[in-house]
Amino acid sequence: MNTFDLHIMVYINQFSQYSLTFNKIIALLSACNLLKGGVLVTLIWWAWFKGGDRQSHNREHILSTLLCCFIAEFISRLLSLTLPFRIRPLYEKKLDFFLPYGLEKPNFLDSWSSFPSDHAVLFFSLSAGLLFVSKKAGAFALAYTTLLIAFPRIYLGLHYPTDIISGAVIGITVTVLGNIYFVPNKYLKSISNWSHSKPDVFYPIFFIFTYQIIEMFDDVRSIISLGYKSFISHGGYF
Predict the structure, then answer these.
(1) Spatial distance between the Cα atoms of 117 and 114, rounded to a whole number of angstroms
(2) Residue 63: pLDDT above 80?
(3) So what's the pLDDT on residue 97?
Protein backbone atom coordinates (compact mmCIF):
# COMPACT_ATOMS: atom_id res chain seq x y z
CA MET A 1 0.00 0.00 0.00
CA ASN A 2 1.39 3.41 -0.95
CA THR A 3 1.68 6.38 1.41
CA PHE A 4 -0.96 8.38 -0.47
CA ASP A 5 -3.63 5.71 -0.01
CA LEU A 6 -2.59 5.00 3.57
CA HIS A 7 -2.90 8.60 4.79
CA ILE A 8 -6.28 9.18 3.14
CA MET A 9 -7.74 5.85 4.30
CA VAL A 10 -6.59 6.40 7.89
CA TYR A 11 -7.98 9.94 7.92
CA ILE A 12 -11.40 8.97 6.53
CA ASN A 13 -11.67 5.83 8.62
CA GLN A 14 -11.45 7.80 11.86
CA PHE A 15 -15.00 9.04 11.27
CA SER A 16 -16.48 5.56 10.75
CA GLN A 17 -17.56 5.06 14.39
CA TYR A 18 -19.34 8.38 14.97
CA SER A 19 -22.79 8.19 13.39
CA LEU A 20 -24.95 5.16 12.67
CA THR A 21 -27.35 7.27 10.59
CA PHE A 22 -24.56 8.66 8.41
CA ASN A 23 -23.10 5.17 7.94
CA LYS A 24 -26.49 3.81 6.88
CA ILE A 25 -26.87 6.62 4.34
CA ILE A 26 -23.42 5.94 2.90
CA ALA A 27 -24.18 2.22 2.71
CA LEU A 28 -27.46 2.95 0.90
CA LEU A 29 -25.69 5.17 -1.62
CA SER A 30 -23.15 2.44 -2.26
CA ALA A 31 -25.67 -0.38 -2.65
CA CYS A 32 -28.60 1.28 -4.42
CA ASN A 33 -28.27 1.13 -8.21
CA LEU A 34 -31.10 3.64 -8.60
CA LEU A 35 -29.11 6.26 -6.69
CA LYS A 36 -25.96 5.50 -8.68
CA GLY A 37 -26.51 4.64 -12.32
CA GLY A 38 -30.20 5.53 -12.21
CA VAL A 39 -29.48 9.23 -11.70
CA LEU A 40 -26.85 9.43 -14.44
CA VAL A 41 -28.84 7.36 -16.93
CA THR A 42 -31.80 9.68 -16.33
CA LEU A 43 -29.52 12.54 -17.39
CA ILE A 44 -28.56 10.56 -20.50
CA TRP A 45 -32.23 10.17 -21.46
CA TRP A 46 -32.82 13.87 -20.73
CA ALA A 47 -29.90 14.77 -22.97
CA TRP A 48 -31.20 12.48 -25.72
CA PHE A 49 -34.56 14.27 -25.91
CA LYS A 50 -33.13 17.72 -25.24
CA GLY A 51 -34.33 19.95 -28.06
CA GLY A 52 -32.46 22.63 -29.95
CA ASP A 53 -30.43 23.03 -33.10
CA ARG A 54 -27.75 20.64 -31.81
CA GLN A 55 -30.08 17.75 -31.02
CA SER A 56 -28.79 15.51 -33.81
CA HIS A 57 -25.16 16.27 -32.91
CA ASN A 58 -25.85 15.73 -29.21
CA ARG A 59 -27.38 12.33 -29.90
CA GLU A 60 -24.23 11.27 -31.71
CA HIS A 61 -22.24 12.26 -28.62
CA ILE A 62 -24.58 10.23 -26.43
CA LEU A 63 -24.23 7.15 -28.62
CA SER A 64 -20.47 7.61 -28.62
CA THR A 65 -20.47 7.93 -24.83
CA LEU A 66 -22.49 4.75 -24.37
CA LEU A 67 -20.09 2.88 -26.64
CA CYS A 68 -17.15 4.31 -24.71
CA CYS A 69 -18.68 3.16 -21.41
CA PHE A 70 -18.67 -0.39 -22.69
CA ILE A 71 -15.09 -0.10 -23.97
CA ALA A 72 -13.89 1.49 -20.73
CA GLU A 73 -15.53 -1.25 -18.64
CA PHE A 74 -13.90 -3.90 -20.84
CA ILE A 75 -10.49 -2.29 -20.30
CA SER A 76 -11.19 -2.11 -16.57
CA ARG A 77 -12.05 -5.80 -16.29
CA LEU A 78 -9.04 -6.73 -18.40
CA LEU A 79 -6.72 -4.76 -16.10
CA SER A 80 -8.38 -6.23 -13.03
CA LEU A 81 -7.81 -9.78 -14.29
CA THR A 82 -4.27 -9.31 -15.61
CA LEU A 83 -2.65 -6.98 -13.06
CA PRO A 84 -1.45 -8.29 -9.68
CA PHE A 85 -4.36 -8.87 -7.32
CA ARG A 86 -5.05 -5.99 -4.93
CA ILE A 87 -6.98 -6.80 -1.78
CA ARG A 88 -9.70 -4.35 -0.81
CA PRO A 89 -9.08 -2.05 2.19
CA LEU A 90 -11.68 -3.66 4.46
CA TYR A 91 -9.91 -7.03 4.07
CA GLU A 92 -6.38 -5.66 4.45
CA LYS A 93 -5.13 -6.72 7.90
CA LYS A 94 -2.13 -4.37 7.79
CA LEU A 95 -4.45 -1.38 7.44
CA ASP A 96 -6.43 -2.08 10.63
CA PHE A 97 -9.53 -0.78 8.88
CA PHE A 98 -12.54 -0.21 11.16
CA LEU A 99 -15.77 -1.17 9.44
CA PRO A 100 -18.24 1.75 9.77
CA TYR A 101 -20.34 1.37 12.90
CA GLY A 102 -23.58 -0.57 12.38
CA LEU A 103 -22.55 -2.23 9.10
CA GLU A 104 -21.58 -5.81 8.29
CA LYS A 105 -18.55 -6.86 6.27
CA PRO A 106 -19.54 -8.20 2.82
CA ASN A 107 -18.10 -11.62 1.96
CA PHE A 108 -18.58 -11.59 -1.80
CA LEU A 109 -15.86 -9.06 -2.66
CA ASP A 110 -12.82 -10.68 -1.07
CA SER A 111 -11.96 -12.46 -4.32
CA TRP A 112 -12.42 -9.35 -6.51
CA SER A 113 -9.38 -7.19 -7.11
CA SER A 114 -9.74 -3.61 -5.88
CA PHE A 115 -7.85 -2.02 -8.80
CA PRO A 116 -9.25 -0.27 -10.76
CA SER A 117 -12.72 0.71 -9.57
CA ASP A 118 -15.43 -0.40 -12.02
CA HIS A 119 -17.78 2.16 -10.51
CA ALA A 120 -15.33 4.99 -11.17
CA VAL A 121 -14.63 3.81 -14.72
CA LEU A 122 -18.29 3.56 -15.70
CA PHE A 123 -19.78 6.60 -14.02
CA PHE A 124 -16.95 9.03 -14.69
CA SER A 125 -17.14 7.88 -18.31
CA LEU A 126 -20.85 8.76 -18.42
CA SER A 127 -20.24 12.08 -16.68
CA ALA A 128 -17.50 13.08 -19.11
CA GLY A 129 -19.78 12.25 -22.04
CA LEU A 130 -22.50 14.51 -20.69
CA LEU A 131 -20.07 17.44 -20.84
CA PHE A 132 -20.20 17.23 -24.64
CA VAL A 133 -23.97 17.79 -24.51
CA SER A 134 -24.37 20.17 -21.60
CA LYS A 135 -21.60 21.61 -19.45
CA LYS A 136 -24.00 22.14 -16.53
CA ALA A 137 -25.31 18.58 -16.68
CA GLY A 138 -21.78 17.25 -17.10
CA ALA A 139 -20.46 19.26 -14.15
CA PHE A 140 -23.36 18.07 -12.00
CA ALA A 141 -22.71 14.47 -13.05
CA LEU A 142 -19.00 14.74 -12.23
CA ALA A 143 -19.74 16.23 -8.80
CA TYR A 144 -22.45 13.63 -8.12
CA THR A 145 -20.14 10.79 -9.13
CA THR A 146 -17.30 12.11 -6.98
CA LEU A 147 -19.31 12.77 -3.82
CA LEU A 148 -22.15 10.24 -3.89
CA ILE A 149 -20.69 7.31 -5.84
CA ALA A 150 -16.90 7.38 -5.47
CA PHE A 151 -16.56 8.69 -1.90
CA PRO A 152 -18.82 5.99 -0.35
CA ARG A 153 -16.59 3.32 -1.95
CA ILE A 154 -13.60 4.72 -0.07
CA TYR A 155 -15.48 5.34 3.18
CA LEU A 156 -16.77 1.74 3.28
CA GLY A 157 -13.32 0.31 2.54
CA LEU A 158 -14.31 -1.07 -0.85
CA HIS A 159 -11.61 0.86 -2.72
CA TYR A 160 -8.44 2.82 -2.18
CA PRO A 161 -8.31 6.42 -3.45
CA THR A 162 -5.91 5.36 -6.24
CA ASP A 163 -8.46 2.74 -7.37
CA ILE A 164 -10.99 5.54 -7.81
CA ILE A 165 -8.54 7.98 -9.42
CA SER A 166 -7.27 5.36 -11.88
CA GLY A 167 -10.82 4.34 -12.75
CA ALA A 168 -11.78 7.97 -13.32
CA VAL A 169 -8.76 8.51 -15.58
CA ILE A 170 -9.62 5.42 -17.64
CA GLY A 171 -13.29 6.32 -17.99
CA ILE A 172 -12.75 10.00 -18.80
CA THR A 173 -9.87 9.34 -21.21
CA VAL A 174 -11.73 6.69 -23.20
CA THR A 175 -14.86 8.85 -23.40
CA VAL A 176 -13.08 12.04 -24.42
CA LEU A 177 -11.06 10.26 -27.12
CA GLY A 178 -14.14 8.35 -28.27
CA ASN A 179 -16.22 11.50 -28.62
CA ILE A 180 -13.44 13.14 -30.60
CA TYR A 181 -12.93 10.26 -33.03
CA PHE A 182 -16.28 8.41 -33.10
CA VAL A 183 -18.68 11.33 -33.58
CA PRO A 184 -17.46 12.28 -37.09
CA ASN A 185 -17.98 8.65 -38.12
CA LYS A 186 -20.85 8.22 -40.59
CA TYR A 187 -21.94 4.94 -38.99
CA LEU A 188 -22.68 6.69 -35.72
CA LYS A 189 -24.85 9.17 -37.56
CA SER A 190 -26.65 6.28 -39.24
CA ILE A 191 -27.44 4.75 -35.86
CA SER A 192 -28.74 8.10 -34.66
CA ASN A 193 -30.98 8.37 -37.74
CA TRP A 194 -32.23 4.86 -37.00
CA SER A 195 -34.06 6.31 -33.97
CA HIS A 196 -36.26 8.22 -36.45
CA SER A 197 -36.71 5.54 -39.11
CA LYS A 198 -37.09 2.54 -36.76
CA PRO A 199 -38.07 3.87 -33.31
CA ASP A 200 -39.90 0.62 -32.50
CA VAL A 201 -36.59 -1.23 -32.77
CA PHE A 202 -34.14 1.44 -31.63
CA TYR A 203 -35.71 2.47 -28.33
CA PRO A 204 -36.17 -1.02 -26.83
CA ILE A 205 -32.46 -1.67 -27.52
CA PHE A 206 -31.56 1.76 -26.18
CA PHE A 207 -33.57 1.07 -23.03
CA ILE A 208 -31.98 -2.35 -22.44
CA PHE A 209 -28.47 -0.96 -22.85
CA THR A 210 -29.03 1.97 -20.50
CA TYR A 211 -30.71 -0.35 -18.01
CA GLN A 212 -27.62 -2.54 -18.06
CA ILE A 213 -25.53 0.54 -17.27
CA ILE A 214 -27.69 1.09 -14.17
CA GLU A 215 -27.04 -2.54 -13.23
CA MET A 216 -23.33 -2.16 -14.13
CA PHE A 217 -23.70 -4.91 -16.74
CA ASP A 218 -24.19 -7.50 -13.96
CA ASP A 219 -26.65 -9.52 -16.04
CA VAL A 220 -24.33 -9.49 -19.05
CA ARG A 221 -21.42 -10.59 -16.87
CA SER A 222 -23.51 -13.42 -15.42
CA ILE A 223 -24.53 -14.66 -18.86
CA ILE A 224 -20.95 -14.51 -20.15
CA SER A 225 -19.63 -16.20 -17.01
CA LEU A 226 -22.23 -18.97 -17.24
CA GLY A 227 -21.44 -19.52 -20.91
CA TYR A 228 -17.71 -19.61 -20.23
CA LYS A 229 -18.05 -22.08 -17.35
CA SER A 230 -20.32 -24.28 -19.47
CA PHE A 231 -17.80 -24.16 -22.31
CA ILE A 232 -14.93 -25.15 -19.99
CA SER A 233 -16.92 -27.88 -18.24
CA HIS A 234 -17.63 -29.54 -21.60
CA GLY A 235 -13.99 -29.54 -22.57
CA GLY A 236 -14.28 -26.60 -24.92
CA TYR A 237 -17.42 -27.85 -26.68
CA PHE A 238 -21.03 -26.78 -26.25
Answers:
(1) 6
(2) yes
(3) 83
Q: Decide: 61 and 180 in contact? Cβ < 8 Å.
A: no
Count structural domains, the chain: 1
What is the per-residue pLDDT for 226?
61
Q: What is the pLDDT of residues 31-46, one digit of tens each?
A: 899 999 999 999 999 9
Outline where DSSP puts E strands in the chain. Answer: none
pTM: 0.88
**5 is a domain residue:** no
The answer as to whether 12 is a domain residue is no
Residue 15 lies in a domain: no
What integer pLDDT is reported at residue 87 of this predicted model?
Answer: 87
Kindly list the distances between the CA atom of residue 130 and the CA atoms of 162, 169, 185, 210, in Å, as whole numbers in the listed order.
Answer: 24, 16, 19, 14
- Is residue 142 within 8 A of residue 126, CB to CB? The reply is no
- Could you list the residue range(s) of the whole structural domain that residue 169 is in? 23-101+112-233
Cβ contacts of residue 48 below 8 Å, gap of 6+?
58, 59, 62, 206
- Residue 83 three-state SS: coil
Average pLDDT over residues 71-75: 91
The residues near 86 (Cβ < 8 Å, ≥ 6 apart) are 113, 114, 115, 160, 163
Does residue 238 have a pLDDT over 60?
Answer: no
Torsion of CA 174, 179, 181, 184, to 10 degrees: 160
CB 167 within 8 A of CB 124: yes
Domain for residue 6, yes or no? no
Q: Distance between the two ends of the chain, CA-based, in angstroms?
A: 43
